[in-house]
Amino acid sequence: MSYRPITDVWILARPKVRYYGAYPNGFLERARALLGVTPLDPVLHVCGGRAREYPAKPRGFGPNDRTLDLDPALEPDYLQAATDPLPAVAFDMGAAPGWPALLADPPHTETDAEHYAPGRAAFPRANVILKHMLAVVRPGGRVGMLHYVLPQPPREGVRFVACVGVVCGFNNRMRTFSVFEREVGSAASEGVVTR
């Protein structure tokens, strides 16, 4: 039996958070649903920016969510680059250790990276971020990325769940929200193309 990922287009409202590249309004609630997590499940927001200021709580940014970012002014829970191995936190919520889900919204281009600390010098590649997220999500957990590109997952141990176009009205660039699931018993952190 062949598998086809979920496809959709979300036409969302402009961000309510005043921050370059903030999530469109209505995005996080829909993203959590595709990631298969409840408002109480911890989600790591990679390149998290000001995700904790997202207005729809807890349906969007949950009370157990954490942020990872390079800008100390944003006071992230984890001050580090998304291109380094991510924190592997074991949550005791009656399931396997690891994050139930991770969500990344990195700078989409080197020009976009200039709007963030430390700028273009730390521009993260989507495939590298995906590799690091898959390494710390629990088996059966999902990772999602909002980007201009559809990142390439490993050939084995990962299921491509969804590809959703995300746009905020007319005359705006469309982004892709891609979702991948780490299969149970997989070594999903290996084999990702990093170009």
The number of helical segments is 3
For the termini, the CA-CA separation is 31 Å
Rg value? 15 Å
Low-confidence spans? 188-195
The chain-level structural class is alpha/beta
Major sheet: order of its strands?
A: 1-7-8-6-5-2-3-4
Q: Helix proportion of residues, in percent?
A: 10-25%
Estimated share of beta-strand residues: 25-35%
Helix and strand element order = EHEEEEHHEEE
Shape: globular
Query: How would a crystallographer describe the biggest sheet?
Result: 8 strands, mixed
Q: How many β strands by DSSP?
A: 8
> Average pLDDT, to the nearest integer?
88
Structure description:
The protein has 195 residues and is of the alpha/beta class. Helices cover 12% and strands 26% of the residues. It has three helices and eight strands. It has helices at residues 27-35, 110-113, 126-136, and strands spanning 6-11, 43-46, 66-69, 78-79, 99-104, 137-147, 158-167, 175-182. It has an eight-stranded mixed β-sheet, sandwiched between helices. A hairpin with a 7-residue loop joins strand 7 (158-167) and strand 8. The longest helix is centred in the last third of the chain and has 11 residues, at 126-136. It is globular. Residues 188-195 have low confidence and may be disordered.
